[in-house]
């Protein structure tokens, strides 16, 4: 757009590029980077016809922190704290993906007890991730109260996770060959209290929020993703499972001890925002099942191998890939080592990036309010997308 | 001559009293809303300023008054600042015919209901001006929503009010109240339950309160029509919203809930109790329900409220004619 007063072209590269395609009688709206419902600094350029969206284009890069580049100037052990900061929602999945890749590369055996501890802490972290999403999503839809309830429950979980990880948000507690600390009696007591407590909360959430007619009208039959779209964009996690694709890394490429527990992969066929919503709520329940069984069958032993790598440890030459199921989908880490002190290259596969790609196609022709509902149902964590 | 002077003095005193009442009520409602929201959300709400945070609204007001009044670039300064004034001052007039008590009415107007409905319409103009003059795309979208919403919801509101007017044979609010009895089964809500429900829903839509707060839908339009307002510019809209809430609750009380009449001892306290009960319900709705979508909002109105209100009106008219 040409500003007559200043006699210069306004708008940055993206806006100008987007405006080339604008038709007459449409309004170009810049949603974000600072907007209440873009969860951080996602920016979306929208072309609106009235309140209907003609085109949408997400623009990334406002939270790029060069995590992949940072890996090249740090040793593998030094890089672990970065993994807690890629995705603040479910950092333990990233911890696990990275630790798993390095263990695969270095041939490090993980003690059985450590695997169980990883499962327990990772699943508890998944519940915090879904609770955070749940509260924030309902907030996007205009109800302010549920997020406070979700945070109340999440707070209890953070207290529990603090015991094993030492921090409350950006965990980096996994080590190559185990985890940093064993659990104590306090942890056991709190987890055993939490599981029945959370099971009483979920029906309440269903009655209070999920069955609310206004909410159902806002999310049902909104943002339909066909299985074909999911495959084309490579979306994973609850987004894929909401469209009838029963793909869960914990089942599809079993890792650790997940096969020893009795749990289901929640799948909904409808592919709308409500399906994704229900998948996540069901996953909270399944995670509780896994944690309960893991706590009951926790084997004795060490929580970390005796000769765990120190920070000067050099990985052997080669490359390895490890994927785990994070709160948002498939979290993958590829570690390439040339035998030196620092890794040659680390590639992070963030599920949010693929999931966000669905937005532009799915939001076409919907209302502005629906775009917010679709965006929220993708469960985006912007730092993970930008890395 | 003497009579006119008395009337004039009465109106001036009344308007000053109304202004004070609106200001004070704004403070009380801000506190009630924030405290209520706090308790709905399992947190204490404001707690720091004064015991249990009772002075918090005054601190809020001082903060709003002390802030810089900022006019955005390329905004129309005259219309931009006219809008908040236009949204607040007509609301004061709406209090004139409200019967707070047997004698506690600023001015008993025979066309009281008409006066209220007429001046309530000005609020839409203010919202439209605010969104248009602030040269902001979100503001524009919010203003567009405000107009469509207010125009839509005014009609069922009018139809339900007319049903009561048919039944009572008058537009004078004091007369309508005096026709009702002291006990709940003698109130108009018993004869007009459908009108009461439609009135409540339309009143939420008319005052832009959640779940119908679309003109300022925070998660979609950042702040809608008042995105660009700071300080008292925003404060005026805020105060006008609360004043409007009191007016619609006050009219509802007078029409359906027996006004200042109540069990045992009649008086203005019953009026205040009922108004505050309705306001409490409005606050409760806001902190419980998600926001409806815009097309759904209009669907509720045009496909449900309007036909129902029309049927209700026709039914009332028929019954009044027959009996």
H/E topology pattern of chain A: EEHEEEHHHHHEEHHHHHHEEEHHH
Please tell me the overall pLDDT of chain B: 84
User: Biggest interface, which chains?
Assistant: A-B, 28 and 28 residues
CA distance, first residue to last residue of chain A: 31 Å
- Counting DSSP H or I runs of 4 or more residues, the number of helices of chain A is 15
Oligomer status: heterodimer
- Counted beta strands of chain A: 10
- Per the CATH scheme, the topology name of the largest domain in chain A is Cytochrome-c3 Hydrogenase, chain B
Could you describe the 3D structure shown?
The complex is a heterodimer of chains A (387) and B (323). With 387 residues, chain A is α+β, with helices and mostly antiparallel strands. Chain A has 2 domains: 2-59, no CATH class; 67-386, Cytochrome-c3 Hydrogenase, chain B (Orthogonal Bundle). Chain A has helices at 13-19, 67-70, 76-86, 91-106, 112-140, 146-165, 185-210, 213-219, 227-233, 238-241, 249-252, 273-296, 351-362, 368-377, 382-386; strands spanning 2-3, 8-9, 27-31, 43-49, 52-59, 174-175, 178-179, 318-325, 330-337, 345-349. In chain A, the strands form 4 sheets. A 3-stranded antiparallel β-sheet of chain A has the order 3-4-5. A 3-stranded antiparallel β-sheet of chain A has the order 8-9-10, covered by helices on one side. Chain A has a two-stranded antiparallel sheet with strand order 1-2. Chain B is an all-alpha fold and 323 residues long. Chain B is built from 13 helices and no strands. The longest helix of chain B is centred in the N-terminal third of the chain and has 39 residues, at 2-40. The termini of chain B are far apart. The mean pLDDT of chain B is 84. The interface between A and B is medium-sized, with 28 and 28 residues.
List the helices and strands and how they pair.
The complex is a heterodimer of chains A (387) and B (323).
Chain A: E1 2-3, E2 8-9, H1 13-19, E3 27-31, E4 43-49, E5 52-59, H2 67-70, H3 76-86, H4 91-106, H5 112-140, H6 146-165, E6 174-175, E7 178-179, H7 185-210, H8 213-219, H9 227-233, H10 238-241, H11 249-252, H12 273-296, E8 318-325, E9 330-337, E10 345-349, H13 351-362, H14 368-377, H15 382-386
Antiparallel strand pairs in A: 1-2, 3-4, 4-5, 6-7, 8-9, 9-10
Helix pairs in contact in A: 3-4, 4-5, 5-6, 5-12, 5-14, 6-7, 7-12
Chain B: H1 2-40, H2 56-66, H3 77-94, H4 112-120, H5 122-133, H6 137-168, H7 173-179, H8 188-191, H9 193-206, H10 218-221, H11 231-256, H12 268-286, H13 294-322
Helix pairs in contact in B: 1-2, 1-11, 1-12, 2-11, 3-4, 3-5, 3-11, 5-6, 6-9, 6-13, 9-11, 9-13, 11-12
